[in-house]
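Justification of resources, computational component.

The compute hours requested in this renewal are based largely on the per-chain cost of generating structure records like the one below. Each record pairs the submitted sequence with a full structure-token output. That output is archived, and it is also reused by downstream analysis tasks.
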Amino acid sequence: MTSEAIDASAALFEVGDPTDPDTAARLLTARYATGADREMWEREGVTLPPERAVLVVLADPAPRADALVALVALVIFDDSQSLYKYFK
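The structure output for this chain reads:
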């Protein structure tokens, strides 16, 4: 991939690296958390549980590219592999 292509693809993302699971969790929480989850995020920086993050992205009728990349990062780096059940 050329440096121009890398720069162009990086411009799609508002965060540094949505493929990092911690960054992915923060991105999805910032975008999708509501109610008590939103309050916990804003007050204490608590991210959505991975399963809930996956479900809200899957429920979004038009998720942005960075949310989809973050979703994949959460699933790939899920040590328990409990998130794979949503993709069978």
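The chain is about 60% helix and 0% strand. Residues 21-32 form the longest helix (12 residues).
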